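name: query_chain
kind: protein
chains: 1
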Amino acid sequence: MFSRNYLRFTAPTLAFAAMVLAAPQIAFADEEDDDHGDHHGEEEHYDITLWNNNGVLQTGGWDHDTETLEVQSLRVFEAHFGEDPALPNAIDEPGFGGTADATGLALGATMTMNLTGNFAAWNGNGFSATSNVLSIGYEGQSVDSSTGGGLDFLVTEDWDEHPIFSINQDAAANSYLAEMSFSMDGLGSTDPFWVVFNYGMDDELYEETVEWVETNLVPAPGVLALLGLGGLATRRRRA
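structure:
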């Protein structure tokens, strides 16, 4: 898990780690299904799902139209605050869905979505800690990024849950990054996954921040271990 200043990035230090780790790990979706969960582009939208991968929980992309696990391994999701003009700083996406049969989870078991205290804002080269706060509410439960915490969901035959994500209204227009994970009794917890929130940022620039996350954070275990050793950092260069 990264520290609160985990994403102050300078150019050379993660280049070697990214070269070694990104190639096998970055393929979190089939090429034809490469998707960020975006309502604003032409790509198909996937909700977050959770499934039992040989005793270890894994996040994937769920398609509610087909009621199937479309992408087995998906760790970067998108959301745009303000899709409802009446709620400019809130959104009920990404949703969280699945079926007990397709995910291999026991009916009635509790799934806990864990929000870390690491909430970050785009700084032009990467993400760095921000004083802004992400809050998540669901059926009387609430957590926020100032302290972290967990929200509980139940495994049902077919679940389609939409927690409310919100950011403080005085936050600057930008791309914001939240780190989360899932845990359940008796199963190994997921690797971290990330939701990239657009709060009034130009869509094209926002998509570049999503690409940055996919490139630099998806190979999390090795890269984040390096980050913890010395505040290592990188800057993604575009051709």
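note: Confidence is low (pLDDT under 50) at residues 1-43, 220-239.
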